[in-house]
Prior knowledge:
This protein is of the alpha/beta class. The chain has helices at about 1-5, 20-30, 45-60, 100-115, 135-140, 145-160, 195-205, 230-240, 255-260, 265-275, 290-300, 305-325, and strands at about 10, 35, 65-70, 70-75, 75-80, 120, 165-170, 210-215, 245-250, 280.
Amino acid sequence: MQNSLGQLLLIGFHGVEPPQELMNLIDDIQLGGIILFKRNIEGEEQLYSLARRVQDHARKRGIPTLFNAVDQEGGVVARLSAPFTVFSSQGELPPETTYDDCFRRGAQMAEDLHRAGFNLNLAPVLDVSMPGDVSKNGLRCFSSDPTRVAELGIGLIRGLQEHGIAACAKHFPGLGRAERDPHQSLPTVPGSMGRELIPFRAAVAQDVSCVMMGHALYPDYDPDRQASLSQTLIEEVLRKDLGFQGLVLSDDLEMGAVANQYSLADSVVLSFEAGCDVLLVCSRMEEVADCVKVLSREIEKSSAMKRRLEESLRRVAWAKERIARPGEFHS
């Protein structure tokens, strides 16, 4: 079982070359994918070589194509710099920006990402910002108008996916009203999320490949668990209410909003149990094998967890088939 469980992990590492520990994880647990940050990027040729070496290693062992993911939002969160295209933040786009402009933005992102060996962009941010928010989080948002967020977000999603890069709408059900940074501590977002769900409904209707859960507490929906660990928000709201059938990702399970409360192994189990198909561990690669062992033990105890595993593995396989055949993104 541990081999199949590896497909649920998306992990980060340090260095500009794939370390032996990463290659061992690919072999030992059939790792699902990697996520790269600025710490992994030295230049265009190095970046593509890194991606090729990791994918070749997996392919030679009969392991499915790895997700090779990156946060390429633009501006305040952009991992690629020159000679790749330099994009502004979503919140810095001119007021006259249209759907077509964002479609072209997505298409250009896709071209850059292909050159670098990526197949999954953890973008766009579909959070609805608070009016006048000029913080980093505010700059990551298209607008404080949910209808405009939906229009521009759909443009970017289609621009990416029609050019062969899987897109990921984030951070469900919306972090725009969060007054704390979930990287550091757990935010609480009270009240109905009706407005904030508008862009996500639109993204689901347009066949976005992935949705990432946010690390915030939404007491009107689930007073006990942050969204990334909440079965209510994943299974009831995202899956049943919005009708999403694609991949659900956790945000990085090492972020303070989760890590201050749970061990990494516990958060992996809780996130999977709640309904996340792909679990992000962005730095602590050395703990991944133990996390898989703990998750495996928990799944063995529960028929419901075994069914959850079958569902997630089907979704992961489906997403990887779409990546391998980009024309299927809008079949």
